[in-house]
From TrEMBL:
It is an enzyme of class 2 (transferase). It catalyses: 2 cob(II)alamin + AH2 + 2 ATP = 2 adenosylcob(III)alamin + 2 triphosphate + A + 2 H(+). GO terms for molecular function: corrinoid adenosyltransferase activity. NCBIfam families: PduO_Nterm. Its EC number is 2.5.1.-. Residues 1-23 are annotated as: Disordered. The keyword Nucleotide-binding applies. The keyword Glycoprotein does not apply. Belongs to the Cob(I)alamin adenosyltransferase family. This is Cobalamin adenosyltransferase.
Amino acid sequence: MANRLTQIATRTGDDGTTGLGDGTRVPKDHLRVHAMGDVDELNSHLGVLLAEPLPSDVRALLQSVQHELFNLGGELSIPGYTLLGDEALAALDAALAQHNATLPRLAEFILPAGTRAAALAHVARAVARRAERAVVQLGAAEPVRPAPRQYLNRLSDLLFVLARVLNRARLDGLGGDDVYWRSPRLASEAPPAT
């Protein structure tokens, strides 16, 4: 891997290019840079979520995810390099199964709302989906391992589940359930109550 940062303001990007981890320079609007930026934004949103009151197991999970996202970003920054291990995806699958098992089945669509922590998890979920799309777009243009795409896909699912968990955690004195979407069309099509 390239040298660690010793200086932040290098002025080397003033020409509209940026350096990848292997030393090559690409335009700042390159597909790889978009994907790296979306992963960085996702990690930043998780940092904001971690500033909220959270159950200790959720906090530990999200802190681990932040490290894996840094690995994922590093892998994207060095074409052909592998940093994100198979165990990272397995950990997401295990966490998804564990947390999903504690929740009631969904019968309706829910809104990205509820407690502040749940709403922040939904924002992170939406950014994870955008990051996934950016990695898919990059993969259509040049070789990218499946692991980064798979990790972001599973992570967005996990963040949806964690938002539901956080709505029930009541750590801020609020919440208790999901916020359900009320569709006028679906309500008019519902069978009459007997």
